[in-house]
Structures are given as C-alpha cells and as structure tokens.
Design a protein that fits this description.
alpha/beta, 9-stranded mixed β-sheet
Amino acid sequence: MRSASPPRFPVGRVLAGALIAVGVLAVPAPAQADNQSIGVNFAAGTAAPTYRASGWIYGMTENGTNPPSNYFTDVKFQAMRAGGAQLAGGGWQGGGYDRRWNATRAQMLRTKALGGKFVLLPHDLWGADGANIARYPGDNGNWTDYNNFLTRVIADVKATGVPVQWDIWNEPNISIFWNRPQSQYFELWRRTYQRLRADMPGTLIVGPSYAGVPTTSNGAWWNQYLDYVKANNVVPDIISWHSLPGDPVANVAAANSTLDARGIPHPRPYQINEYGAGNEQNPADGAWYITRLERAGADGLRANWASGGNLHNDLGNLLIHNSAGQYQTKGEWWVYRFYAQQTGTIVTTTPSSGYDAYATKDTGTAKVLIGGGRTTGNIAVSLQGLNSTTGLVVNNQVRAVVQRIPDNNGGAVTGPVTVQDQVVTLTGNAATVNVNNTNVNDAYTITLLPSSTPTSPSPSPSASASPSPSSSASSPPATGTACTASYQITGTWQGGFQAEVAVSNTGSAATRGWAVNWTLPAGQAISQIWNGSLVTSGSAATVTNVSYNGTLAPGATATFGFLASGNSASTPSLTCSAN
C-alpha cells in the first residue's frame, strides 16, 4: 500500500509516499537486451495450485457492487484487505466511523459471496489511513476510547457473520500510520490481541504488516517486535510484511531465520499483504511477483495506491474505464487470468537472474507463466520431462503456443497476443522454446497442447463463456436466427444476490442482436447490470445486447450478469429472441 523496501535487484526501484499521495522516483533504464535461460521440469510435480497471489488491497466500490463479478472469478480471487480508507469523516477518531464501517461491511459481504477471505484493517476504521490525525489509541495513557472502538468493531464484525483476519495495525513502524512511540504501539498490540482472543476466539490475527521486509539486523524494528510478542505471548497467527519492492523468496528466508532463532512457530503461510511497488504494477513484474510468491510459499495481496473513489474500485488498478464508463482490463489483469487457468499440478522451475516462471501440468495441457520486468532479449525456455505429462505428447511432438501479455503503457488490453504457434519435436523427452522479449514490461506465456490441436487457446473473458444453466427457455427451431437463455445464481447475501444469464445462438445464421425477457418475482429489483442493456416496466425486465456481444455465430454464447435485491429462491422463466 504505501512504504519503501530494499530493492529486489542490485539496481533498485524506490517507492516514496503514502496511500493518499504517492510519487514514484525515476526508474533506471532497462538493461541492454540480455539473453537468458529458464527451466521447467514437468517430471518434478509438487502440489495442486492454490492461487496464493490472487489477493488485493481494496478494489471494490464503496457499496460493494462493482466491479462485476466476472473480473474477480476469472482470476480466482482469493482475498481482499480493506477498512474504509479515505472515506470522508475521518473514521472513529474524527466522528465518521459509520460510513467507513458501512463500506467495509459491504465489501466483506461481497468478498464472502465471491469465495474470498477478508483481511480487516481496523486502523483505517479508526482513521489512521495516512491523514495527519490528532488522536491515537492510548494517548496520555488513556485506553478508554480505544476500548470503546474495539467493542463497536467487534460487535459489527460479529453481526455480519463473515469470518475475518484481523490485521491489528498497518505499518506501525512509520510515522504516517503510527505517529507515537513504539512502546505505545506494543501496548496497543497486547491489548488488542488479548481482547480478540477473549471476544472472538478463532479469529486469525495478522501482523505486524511491517513497512519493509524481514531483516536479521540487530536492533531493527522487525526484531524488536518479534522479541516483544514472544516475551508477552501475543504472537500473531499470521506473520505479515510488505514487499515494495522486494523478493518474496529472500523475504521468507529472512523471516524464517529471525523467527526460528527465537523459537516462534509459524505454521501458517506468511502473508505479504502488500506487494508490487507502483512502478512494478505491469504484466512483467506482476508475473514475476506471482512466481516468487509461489516459489516462497507465501500468500500475497497486491498493493494499491489509488485515491478517493478509485481506491474503492477497479480491482486494485487492474481495470480502467472507457469514455462510456465501461470497465476494461489492463494487461496485468490478463496475467492473473492466465494464472487462474493453470490447473492440475505445479511443477518445478529454475529461474534466471532476470526471469522466473510458474508452471503447471494437467491432462492434455501444460502452462508456463514467465515474469521479468528488468531486461529484454531472448528467453530460452527448456521444457524437460515431457514424458511425465498426460495426453500431451503425440508422436513425440507437442504444440507450443507462445503469447505476449502487453503492458500497452498501462492502457486497456483486450487479451494476450499470440506470437508463436508451432509443433515442436522432442529430443530425449525435452524441447526448448525461445521467447523473444522486446518490451521490459510485457509478460509471456507458453501453452503446450497435443500436436493435433487445431486452434490457438482463446483469451476471451468469461463474458463469452456459458455457465451451467439452472433454467432454460424453450428452444425455437434451429433455423435462421434463434436463441435460448439460461439463468443461474452465482452469489447470495442477506437481502440480495448475483445472477448470470447465458444467451446461446441455436439457429443456423449469425445473430445481429438478441433480447431476453422475464418477469421479476415479487420483491426483486435489479440494481446493477453488465454486458447487457436493461429496461424494466413494472415487474417486466428486458435485457438486450450491447455493442460488442450482439453478433453470435451459430452455437456461440454471450453472458450478461446483474446484481439484485430480494429473494433469489424464485427462478424466473426466460424467453429469448434474436434477429
């Protein structure tokens, strides 16, 4: 979110500033094109993917309704960390707690509906979100107000029914978030820890969310914190820090050294709950952090420096809006999209000095995500142990599809670009694929398929994928233009739900447009829609296509989704028409 850390490379990138005012210093020019090699050993499988890097700081609208769910589900969203930062009123200490809590509650409920974990930031609810505040917990030795604050937050969290990870205080080692003595913070930690253990047994406690990376240096704040929590029996369930920039692999090694030396157990994965400096938020660096988090075995939440309403939107700056206000994907979103499609078994990779790779194998396919962000040139990717894959090698050959995920200078990106599509003959169950990296901020992927596979893998987002239907309109005769519509509930919460409708062309000719009609059950009202245009009249609802999804080839499908209030138990009967 907001701090500086040691560089991940010998020539560092430095981040300065805070959540509400950030300035990134000039980035050194990329090194001259540098040819490097990385390895992938498909014979050395490890475990099933958990998508540990797919977490974000904030990124939902204040009311929790946007961005649309497909942008989360398509990247296998795992976690969100939030607490109402930057919303007017100054939080508890400024008399503006309610608005911040209401936003936090809405985002908690949406996170739960999407299947993610929620990391609560009570310091933002207090009002310590980078503003110059006058009052901190425990000032002048008085903890009454903070105790009242905890009572309110604990009651509010319990009322939601959403389990949270309680991140006691963000970046307490820098003055922009904790402008008081270290001893006062330690007392805050002890009191909060003991209160949570008494009032919310089982709640996972996270900390210290250190502004920096673990260090073995004697006298460093990190080690003083570890000594305190060990001596007072208040060790967090999940140890956390920020890598802005930094290397998660080196970070974890230092954390292990400092905790193990003190006999502090750490059975759960570390949480690097802010990763990726502002100038590292591009496809190449994003893919690199994913691979390093996976290699380190640490969970990650991507940092976010957006201000105001943009903080509470855009999935942590992975999305932007066009002139019509529609969401569009940036290149780094497609990195997470590919990562989410890596299924089956994780396999072993060998990095180079400038690149790392995360690779998986599954029946009939294998996928390699390549991250860098520091140099350009040829990347020789050595693919070994291909005989250990299933349904992939045919006649001693595989098909290798190389795609580039462009940065586009931070602009909208509609999908990966195929730069190679070739059948490769194996030598000794191995092959080498050369990737020509011409842009320091671009990421690359390799998808291996059986040599007989006829077409390139499609980068289309889920708006064109058909979910399993829970109800379907009657099918017209399959001649001319005709369509069916199927409806499914994809998420529910108290007083509302999310649904998706798949529109399929069942005719023999391409459609130019389509419309879906149904009657809203009593008490239902649609509040938000995407990938369609809604008109309602009383209880009658009609959704028509938008400009980019009206043309459907025979057999093709488009999907629109919506959020609604009311009871989701009633399944409507849909009718579909096409022209």
